[in-house]
Amino acid sequence: MANVQYYDVILKPVVTEKSMELMGEKKYTFLVHPEATKSQVKEAVEKMFEGTKVKRVNTMNLDGKKKRVRGTFKFGRTAKTKKAVVQLTEDSKEIEIFEGL
Length: 101
Description:
alpha+beta, 6 strands
């Protein structure tokens, strides 16, 4: 595996209706580096957002979607991604990125 630093692990937050509902339970969803492990995701969240303590990390690998190429009958695929759902402890601070959404 490549040497992935903590600031390279989290790519961007996922903002959907379901992920917004989960924020009430202190669960936050992020797109992460495809080679990142659960422990690397935990370390990255705790270092990037001060005052947060991670209780649990669930990851899932998502296959790329099939897409048609230039109107022909040929198909290609979009890139594979990895998503992580991070649950914070009860005494942890909220993540500021999601406030006001």
